[in-house]
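Q&A log
Question type: sequence-to-structure
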Amino acid sequence: MHFDEAMWVALGFVLFVVLVWKKAGVALAETLDTRSAKIKSELDEARKLHEEAKSELDSLKGLKRDAEKEAKTIVANAKAAANRIRETAAQKAVETVARRESQAAAKIQASEAALVNELRAKAASLAVDAARELIAEKMDEDASLKLIETSVKQIASLK
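Response status: OK
Response body:
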């Protein structure tokens, strides 16, 4: 076997590549391992954040369901309160109308009674005036003395 220059160059090159590969390979492997560990920790952190976000989302969904349930309860209570208020207002309106009708009827009756009393008083006054005029026209002195004596006897008999 004969080694010529090309062979020595090739052998030197191979030796150089092997040495460089050993030194650079270790550094490259360390760099790749470091980068792999960094990526792995980032992935673990991302999984952890994903789980936390998923847990928070589930919690918020539960809160949303509770809030919707509470809102429905509030709306139902408000509707029930509005119906009670409406019924109470209608009942009070009916009672107020009945009370006012009763008051109006009482006022009408009182007015009628006052009018009847006024008419009776007027009729009595007119009757007295008419009787006075009639007595004045028809009564002379003898008849008036006779009437006075009769009245005095009636009064005396009452005692």
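Response note: The chain has one domain: 5-158.
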